TrEMBL record:
This is GTP cyclohydrolase 1. Residues 19-189 form the GTP cyclohydrolase I domain. One of its GO terms (molecular function) is GTP cyclohydrolase I activity. Keywords: GTP-binding, Hydrolase, Metal-binding, Nucleotide-binding, One-carbon metabolism, Zinc. Homopolymer. It catalyses: GTP + H2O = 7,8-dihydroneopterin 3'-triphosphate + formate + H(+). Pathway: Cofactor biosynthesis; 7,8-dihydroneopterin triphosphate biosynthesis; 7,8-dihydroneopterin triphosphate from GTP: step 1/1. Its EC number is 3.5.4.16.
Length: 198
């Protein structure tokens, strides 16, 4: 298998990773003898590589010509990441709010920021903080707020098996952290009951 199989993951030693996956399966007593499972080690590596990489992109901004200094909020941005403790997926939605300064972000870049930081082994709290710090630094804006709501398979499908539970974390900067009115508006608009009817 060539390294071209893993676009965007130049750091992966494919042969070593596939051998390690095969060794892991053998060590836990899972046979990869059948035609069905013969390529499972390679698929395991490809799947992990895919989840730990994202396409290259540019953080595009525009001048804030009309003075949009109130909240801009991207809601229900889906994401999937890998739990740093168990290497199992955790997935859910992000709500990303910005109080713009001199420039406004291309809207898709809020979702791309979520996608880029999710494409790592993560702890949910740190994922939210990394997204907030990145946007605050890049946009030099008055405030950033990131709410993540996610199901951790390591918590719902194994271990304590708390099926149906999700975890919500909040990471705020600037006025979305310090101004109670701005923060309350952000939290209100991120809440499910404010969604448009489907
Ligand atoms: N704070 C935080 N904890 C997480 C996250 N993802 C997984 N964990 C927790 O990390 C902890 C790891 O605890 P350990 O006791 O070392 O692992 P474990 O024996 O598999 O624990 P159990 O999941 O309780 O079976 C667990 O409590 C997980 O629920 C996360 O994003 N944030
Ligand atoms: Zn976990």
């Amino acid at each position: 298998m060539s390294a071209d199989f893993f676009p965007g993951s130049p750091g992966i030693d494919v042969n070593a990773a596939v051998q390690a996956a095969a060794d892991l399966l053998a060590a836990i007593g899972v046979s990869s003898d059948s035609e069905t499972a013969a390529r499972t080690p390679a698929r395991m590596v490809a799947g992990l590589a895919e989840m730990l990489s994202c396409p290259a992109w540019e953080f595009t901004t525009f001048p804030n010509r009309e003075g949009q200094h109130e909240l801009v909020l991207a809601r229900d941005v889906p994401f999937t990441s890998l739990c740093a403790h168990h290497l199992l997926p955790f997935s859910g939605v992000a709500h990303v709010g910005v109080l713009p300064g001199q420039r406004i972000a291309g809207l898709s870049k809020l979702a791309r920021t979520v996608e880029a930081f999710a494409a790592r082994m993560q702890v949910q709290e740190e994922l939210g903080q990394q997204i907030a710090s990145f946007l605050e630094e890049r946009l030099e804006c008055r405030g950033v707020g990131v709410i993540l709501a996610a199901e951790h398979l390591c918590m719902t499908r194994r271990g304590v098996r708390a099926q149906g539970s999700d975890t919500v974390t909040i990471a705020c900067r600037g006025d979305l952290r310090d101004d109670p009115v701005a923060r309350a508006e952000f939290l209100h608009l991120a809440a499910p009951q404010t969604r448009r009817a489907a």
